[in-house]
Amino acid sequence: MDSVKTDEDTSMTELIQDLDRLKLLVAFDAILVEGTLARAAGKLGKTPSAMSRILRQLREHYGQELFERTGKGMVPTAFAENLRPRIRALVAEANSLLLPECDSKPVRDSLLSQPPLALNQWRQPDRGPGATDIAQRIAVMNKNPEASLRFASYIATIGNTAGQTRPLNAAEADDAFTILLSGQPADVQIGAFLIALQSRGLTEQELVGFTRAARRHSHLDDPGTGPFDLDWPAYLSPRTQGAPLFIHAARLVARAGYRVLMHGPHNSVVHRAFDYAQLPVLTKPEAEHADDNHGILAYLPIENFAPDLRKLHWLYPLFMMPNATQYVSALLNPGAAPATLAGIRGSDRPKLQLEAAKELGWDRFAVLLGHRDAAQIVPHRSQALFVLRDGEVTQNRLFGPASNGNANPETNDNFSRLEKWQAIWDGSVTHPDATAAIIETAAVALNLLSISATPMDHSRAEAAELWANRRK
């Protein structure tokens, strides 16, 4: 005889399911706090494989990715970061109810505004304040009208030990970078803040906040409202070798009738190349040399529109490593163009800038993952291209073309780097690999600028024709 399931049985089943889901949230909280599956497993007395299964269940439940795996740990997505305060509040309140020595006073209200940085643990009186105490003190400092004290709280928030830290949200990051650009923090604070970010890794919400602050500080207009069609950031590492072939690609795009603005440091190899080729170098982001029928390629040194941000670039030789300003610079778009083509060297989070651009509400933004901090195709290499267009993100794999020409191109050992670079454009030096890279890079830019998603083969054909007719 079949058993009949009563309402009481159904309620008990639902209760058990609810408890199981609560366990998932506790594990979710542990991963958010600790930053790695191994540390989270240790906190909860589980194995890393068990935590992996739990993470898979969470991903299936929410229907989207919650973390990105990087060399520095598990970086939460924007969706996960938005859930952090509520999950942390839930777990902390549960701990306060279950641990008899905890203060019985509800902590929910303060948690929702400023969540604790670490899991609640037993605390001995002679070992100083606990995680909740520290977090609440930082929360008070975050509201301090004194900018230097607020900045100190942001350093403490991002720079503490594992399990005692969390990323800044977009509003906090905006405030922190606004203070940073104002020049108010002490030098040691600036160094501590930037190194903490670099060591842990920048998050999407932090980059969004930093970008808003930097663009507001520099009085830059919204993308799509300016005189240029394509924004092409070029912030090359001082150690970058090789000729900037991407400039020739941008010259082809300009010949197609588009107005292209590159920006980067004063007296960089890109700036010197513009001077050498007698291309326009601007003092302000205005397409004053262009008209409705012809395109233009111009260069704008960052010193001319964001000098305070440029000062943070100068810390590179003191740290011997890049800092967060490199990522922010690629999102400045001083010409307020509707499209940006950025490049980034090998990164464990290649879509970081793209996701930030999406969060900022921008329509067209592309990131070419390569071997330099400007968009350029590299021959014989496989590169990922991430494109944001009308709110949708796509990923393509491009293979740097291998030319069919002379394997040993014509060269002149007496040429300087820029002389050889210009000679390729003039045609006095034949370099098939360089030519193939220029055409493919131009095709990527032309494809991004197309109103609809034009097939890449059409863009390649257009770029090849522009190259063939470049001197006419």
From TrEMBL:
The keyword Transcription applies. GO terms for molecular function: DNA binding; DNA-binding transcription factor activity; glycosyltransferase activity. Residues 20-77 form the HTH lysR-type domain. InterPro entries: Glycosyl_Trfase_fam3_N_dom, Glycosyl_Trfase_fam3_N_dom_sf, LysR-type_TF, LysR_HTH_N, Nuc_phospho_transferase, WH-like_DNA-bd_sf, WH_DNA-bd_sf. It comes from the Bacteria. The keyword Mitochondrion does not apply. Keywords: DNA-binding, Glycosyltransferase, Transcription, Transcription regulation, Transferase. PANTHER family: HTH-TYPE TRANSCRIPTIONAL REGULATOR LEUO-RELATED, TRANSCRIPTIONAL REGULATORY PROTEIN. Belongs to the LysR transcriptional regulatory family. This is Anthranilate phosphoribosyltransferase. It comes from Roseovarius pacificus.
